[in-house]
Amino acid sequence: MAKRKTPNVVIYTTRHCTHCKQAIRQLRSWKVGFREMDIETNHRAYAEFRRLRARGVPVIAVGERHLFGFDAKRLRQLLENAGIAVSG
To answer: Residue 88's pLDDT band (boundaries 50, 70, 90)?
Structure first.
């Protein structure tokens, strides 16, 4: 039986985004691994952000699913639906 691959978690941010900082704190408190992509300093991150047609940050990508903005309840549900263990 093949093991299901855990999807990557990526958060697109900017340096001064309060909701981005809240989302990062929440992910850390749940002990969820993620990669932060600052769209102001990283050209590749900005290109990916534009490809998603996002209007603002944070954008949290869990595999191919996306959460636009920060809502802890919706983020937890997205992670759990993707098979990512959330502690706490």
So the answer is: confident
